[in-house]
Amino acid sequence: MNTSLESALQQHRCHPVILAELQFGPALIVDLSPSSEIWGKVNAGHDFSAEIKRQVAEIGAVLEIGRYAEQRMIYQDTDSFSDHQSRTLHIGIDLGIPAGNPVFSPLDGEIFGFADHHQQGDYGPTIILRHQLEGHTFHTLYGHLAKSSLTSLDIGQQIKQGEAFATIGHTDENGGWATHLHFQIIKNMDRYQNDYPGVVDPKEANFYLDNCPDPNWILGRNDLA
């Protein structure tokens, strides 16, 4: 009997996607939903990114986590979403750490696609890996990388589990966001090669949440289970 992708990943013991001391260290789990208390602390001189940094310092966190399947309204003022106002459901997990930190492959895989989606509000430099595990073929997407991560890559290039293949990008190269990694699992890429939606219309939630399951299947943080 074939195991589910979730079971296969949990049994495999994936390598951390970022440095283990960050991935499993003390974290601030950020709530960016419309009802979040964070919006009461935001003003013209203190945006939500600054408030997140304040809260991180207050609790001594080493990681900021942006939640999977969260409704957000932070994208609509960006160029990338100007024609997609209905896309508000975040279907990856954000791992907020400083620029320059390495990104590791959680499993053996190969380069499926890569590009610099440089429009304001988009992914910036992005890499997608293809994996095969116990009869399952699936992909992992890494957004908001450094531009240097895209040099010397080839489609089909083999990436070993635990290999550092990218670094976190600065705000001026990552689509204009606070420094972080957008990490996403994608089962079927359909027509996409070097891109895939990371925020979708909630009306399409059933499809996208099935095709892009919880990235914590790989990350393995107990506080996100």
Task: Please characterize this protein's 3D structure.
This protein has helices spanning 5-12, 20-23, 48-59, 205-211, 216-219; strands spanning 27-30, 63-66, 70-71, 89-90, 93-96, 102-104, 109-117, 124-133, 136-143, 158-159, 164-167, 181-186, 199-200. It is α+β, with helices and mostly antiparallel strands. It has one domain (5-218): Glucose Permease (Domain IIA) (Distorted Sandwich), CATH 2.70.70. The protein has an eight-stranded mixed beta sheet with strand order 1-2-5-12-9-8-7-10. Strand 7 and strand 8 (124-133) form a beta hairpin. The longest helix has 12 residues, at 48-59. 33% of the residues are buried. The model has no long low-confidence stretch (mean pLDDT 93).
Keywords:
5 helices, 225 residues, Glucose Permease (Domain IIA), eight-stranded mixed beta sheet, alpha+beta
Using only C-alpha atoms, the radius of gyration works out to 17 Å
Q: What is the name of the CATH topology?
A: Glucose Permease (Domain IIA)
Principal-axis shape equals globular
The number of distinct structural domains comes to 1
Gist?
The protein has a single domain (5-218), classed as Distorted Sandwich (Glucose Permease (Domain IIA)), CATH 2.70.70.10.
What's the SSE blueprint?
Blueprint: H1 5-12, H2 20-23, E1 27-30, H3 48-59, E2 63-66, E3 70-71, E4 89-90, E5 93-96, E6 102-104, E7 109-117, E8 124-133, E9 136-143, E10 158-159, E11 164-167, E12 181-186, E13 199-200, H4 205-211, H5 216-219
Parallel strand pairs: 1-2
Antiparallel strand pairs: 2-5, 3-4, 4-13, 5-12, 6-11, 7-8, 7-10, 8-9, 9-12
Protein name: Peptidase M23
Organism: Vibrio casei
Domain M23ase beta-sheet core: 89-190
